[in-house]
């Protein structure tokens, strides 16, 4: 019998005793872990809202909000259209109607994490506030605080096939660009076997320089060199690095051309 706590305090106490939170159970499918080791958090109160944060611009997305509900939310569509596009590429409808935001972040391999990292989203947890890759072990994610999408923002998921595909690599970028000069940029990659990570050297290369005569090949080489990933049965680490470099560089060039048009 899986315990079903009705308060946050009870859920956290069960986790401290060694239990594992289970939400939509699309990763923790029946049989994935012994039932008596799980904590069913799917009915915990107060974790299924999508609300305006007090800062006036961010959305507070409850950990139990399903990926499909998030994808269809009118405020998310208006403020974070890149997220809506990404969610359309995460699993199929049947999985998205069960899969939660908390499970995507808690799994550690979800496509949302690089997106949240590039957007400097904050995780509100039972152990305080953290960035998107720093959910403390055993902490309960309560909500994600997602800032509005900046004028330049994109996320690209490459899969092994055209649709309903496991993730090869997901990349995300948020930038402020003034007169062809990048004043700030956050670039992240992750998903599947690639741990979510910022690409700090690529960010440093772009920041403050004029993009007029920019050496895009140098950016692509830096990303390939910097991305920490591994090979699996379907793709080599080098292939993942090349795909990530081309996705980021290609979309950035496209976005700049669109901005200049
Ligand atoms: C066929 C299929 C295709 C998929 N495709 C994709 C894909 O394309 N992209 C992708 O990103 N994912 C994919 N997934 C993985 C998964 O569906 C999602 O990542 C989903 O969001 C997990 O949410 P869940 O509620 O089902 O998590 P669960 O299975 O309930 O839990 C997953 C992990 O998160 C932890 N967890 C859950 N909630 C919390 C919380 N509130 N606080 C702390 N930890 C928590 C659990 O302890 C567990 O470790 C796929 C899964 C399937 C079955």
Give the secondary structure arrangement, pairings included:
Elements lengths: L7 H9 L3 E3 L15 E3 L9 E3 L6 E4 L4 H6 L1 H6 L1 H7 L5 H4 L4 H7 L4 H7 L3 E4 L2 E4 L9 E6 L5 E8 L7 E12 L2 E11 L2 E5 L1 H7 L9 H11 L10 H24 L1
Parallel strand pairs: 1-2
Antiparallel strand pairs: 3-4, 4-7, 5-6, 5-7, 8-9, 9-10, 10-11
Helix pairs in contact: 8-9, 9-10
The structure holds flavin-adenine dinucleotide.
Flavin-adenine dinucleotide binds next to strand 1 and helix 6.
Structural write-up:
- With 261 residues, this protein is of the alpha+beta class.
- It has two domains: 48-149, Uridine Diphospho-n-acetylenolpyruvylglucosamine Reductase, domain 3, CATH 3.30.465; 152-260, CO dehydrogenase flavoprotein, C-terminal domain (Enolase-like, domain 1), CATH 3.30.390.
- It is 34% helix and 24% strand.
- It has ten helices and eleven strands.
- The chain has helices at 8-16, 67-72, 74-79, 81-87, 93-96, 101-107, 112-118, 200-206, 216-226, 237-260, and strands spanning 20-22, 38-40, 50-52, 59-62, 122-125, 128-131, 141-146, 152-159, 167-178, 181-191, 194-198.
- A five-stranded antiparallel β-sheet has the order 3-4-7-5-6, covered by helices on one side.
- The longest helix is centred in the C-terminal third of the chain and has 24 residues, at 237-260.
- The chain starts with 7 loop residues before the first helix and ends with a helix.
- Flavin-adenine dinucleotide binds at residues 20-28, 41, 63, 67, 90-91, 95, 98-100, 102-104, 106-107, 110-111, 140-141, 167.
- The site of flavin-adenine dinucleotide has 28 residues, from strand 1 and helix 6.
